[in-house]
Amino acid sequence: MVKRFQLAGLMRVRELQEEKAAADLAEANRAKLEAKRHAEAMNETLADQSFPDLAHSNAYDAHAEALTSYSPNWQAIVAARAAVAAMLRESTQALSVASENAAAATEQWTQAKTKAAMIDKLKARHAVQVEAEELREEQLTLDEAALRKAVEVTQ
């Protein structure tokens, strides 16, 4: 008679925990990648913004003229750069949080995998013990049959 593995239910629970942890890890890595892409996009947007060229032969006069003629545009450009810089700081912070979440999810997955592996090792040990017991019983049956045959021959 085959002895069933007593921890089969626990093993299934551990496997489900490992699967959930793996799914959580995948989601955390996806969020981290998305946050990284957003931060890179904000960085590129900030790098692509430029101020109007004010280089003339007389830089002071040109600058004074530009400030008076471009004042609304200049203020809008400065405000736009400030807004993009703020969004870059926010996306960098979001990337930091996403990285921390991914690290935590990795740790949880590692722990779940370790717990599942422990139960799996116990199952393998159980299988070896069951096989050894079956072989022992088979050997006893063969020995008994051989003994009976020897008794019958001598009688």
Your description of this structure?
The chain has 155 residues and is mainly alpha-helical. The protein has a single domain, classed as Helix Hairpins, CATH 1.10.287.1700. 88% of the residues lie in helices and 0% in strands. The chain has two helices and no strands. α1 runs antiparallel to α2. The longest helix is centred in the C-terminal third of the chain and has 96 residues. The two termini are 34 Å apart.
Level-1 CATH class name: Mainly Alpha
Strand coverage percent: under 5%
* Distance, first to last CA: 34 Å
CATH architecture: Orthogonal Bundle
Q: Tell the overall outline.
A: rod-shaped
User: Compute the gyration radius: what is it?
Assistant: 37 Å
Low-pLDDT stretches are none
Biggest β-sheet description: none
Number of domains: 1
Order of helices and strands: HH
Mean of residue pLDDT? 86
The percent range for helix content is: over 70%
CATH fold naming: Helix Hairpins
Count helical runs: 2
Count every beta strand, where a strand is a DSSP E run of 2 or more residues. Answer: 0
Structural class: mainly alpha
List keywords for this structure.
single chain, 155 residues, mainly alpha, Helix Hairpins, 88% helix, rod-shaped
Topology of helices and strands:
Layout: H1 8-48, H2 59-154
Helix pairs in contact: 1-2
